[in-house]
Specification:
The chain has 185 residues and is of the alpha+beta class. The protein is 28% helix and 21% strand.
Length: 185
């Protein structure tokens, strides 16, 4: 697993951000975010495989972990992952929610809190990104001690995801930690 690669392996290249303007002050963040269809690789995408993306700003928000989970759950509903029709689809959705929780929790514990979170899906891969102002390098604790409390976040992310990594922009404080999970069949 990578902890430095800015995007996943393969020919997808750098992905468009799919970012949206933040909602006006006092607007319910979860209900104001709309899906954005973005063609994959800038080419005209087939109607059955548009890239759907959502972005959530944590600016001034409290209880960011439940907020992030609710935001991700709403996206999974909009994209047809929930309600799950099969046990495999339910497990895939639960994995996404757990990865969201772990990435946002790590930003809270180790990086002064998250700045924003993005979630995007195409027909094969779901990507979660959490940006923060921290300078640390996330990594699974080694050796991993299953019976020891705490320190399991990145180990869980590594086990559940196809790949994960960190993006840093030179001259800009902070980082974006991303993780990718396979879409259910």
């Amino acid at each position: 697993m990578s902890t430095t690669r800015p995007c996943s392996p393969g020919d997808r290249g750098q992905e468009p951000s799919g970012a949206q303007a933040a909602p006006e002050e006092g607007t319910d963040v979860l209900s104001s975010m709309a899906s954005v269809a973005v063609p994959v690789d800038g080419a005209a995408a087939a109607p059955s495989a548009p890239r759907q993306a959502r972005r959530l700003s944590f600016d001034g928000a409290g209880a960011v972990v439940p907020l992030a989970r609710d935001f991700a759950r709403q996206a999974l509903h909009a994209w047809g992952w929930l309600p799950a029709e099969t046990a495999d689809r339910r497990a895939a959705a639960e994995d996404v929610l757990l990865v969201v929780s772990e990435l946002v929790t790590n930003a809270c514990l180790h990086a002064q809190g998250p700045q924003d979170m993005g979630i995007a899906v195409d027909n094969k891969v779901l990507r979660v990104e959490v940006s923060d102002l921290g300078e640390g390098q996330p990594a699974p604790r080694t050796p991993h001690r299953a019976g020891r409390p705490g320190g399991h976040g990145m180990f869980i992310v590594q086990r559940l995801c196809m790949d994960w990594g960190v993006v840093r922009t030179p001259g800009v404080a902070g980082k974006t930690v991303w993780a990718e999970l396979g879409a259910p069949a």
